[in-house]
Amino acid sequence: MRYSLKQLAVFDAVAETGSVSQAAERLCLTQSATSMSLSQLEKLLGRQLFERNGKQMMLSHWGKWLRPKAKKLLQDAQQIEMGFHEQHLLSGAVQLHVSQTPAEHLVPDLISLIDTSFPEMRIDVDVKSTKHVIEDVLDYKCDLGIIEGRCDEHRLEQEVWCRDHLTVVASSHHPFANLDRVTLAQLEQAKWVLRELGSGTRKIFDSTIHHLIDDLDVWREYEHVPVIRSLVENGSYLTCLPWLDVEQHIQAGRLASINVPELKMERMLSFVWRRDMVDNPLVDCIKREGLRMMKGKGVL
């Protein structure tokens, strides 16, 4: 075997950052040593692993083929090192990117559960829209994603974690709040504040309502659910949000769920990961403990 783990680590860091200088900084190496290590690896393998566009490094076809295999070797090496240092076999860091609703309502409990059973695991969480979570998983920017709704990307595997539904809500003092039923015509006359395009919530809402209402008056679009909730609670807007995001506010009397019989908006919260990703015991642990948590809550 002619290549080294150091060379693979350099390759992986350059692939992740798109830059030799940034990879060198991450690995605490000089830029010349990083560049030399990458050149040696390409020479040993007899293939160009990157397309070079100035200082920007983009994976070539062979680089994309090598990336998941290199990650597996580096991960195994880390597990071996930790094992001989008498650390728990499930040790190390996992990069988890999560859409907003599960990040706020489910992921904290999941991390607490894992912290109790596997204290040497570290879960680094980044909260993004479903669209950006999917992009990050595809670009190797995270090990595992949790998204809202359906994912049709053929390069990803998807496993349902739990189910939820969307509901139309208004403030408790809105004229619609006391109605037994609200018509589509009434929805068309209302002002709406919605999640931004690209979010899982917005995608489900748009796909459900687009063939029922021709022109919805979308007054504002925001990324953060608390902003939307506050505007609706204190104004005359309608919105559509996951039940998990509004349940407590409805029970407290600050929001009201609006009954629109034509709107059925069931959805899934799912784990997603790259189809070509090799076995990762840390990722498997998160999925396994997540499903166990939901069974404990009686959701599954």
From TrEMBL:
**Could you confirm whether the keyword Transcription regulation appears in this record?**
yes
Where does the signal sequence lie? none
From what superkingdom does this record's organism come?
Answer: Bacteria
* InterPro entries hit by this protein: LysR_HTH_N (IPR000847), LysR_subst-bd (IPR005119), WH-like_DNA-bd_sf (IPR036388), WH_DNA-bd_sf (IPR036390)
Q: Tell me which stretches of the chain form a coiled coil.
A: none
Keyword set, alphabetical order? DNA-binding, Transcription, Transcription regulation
Domain HTH lysR-type residue range list: 1-60
Q: Which PROSITE patterns match?
A: HTH_LYSR
Q: Which family does it belong to?
A: Belongs to the LysR transcriptional regulatory family.
Q: What is this protein called?
A: LysR family transcriptional regulator
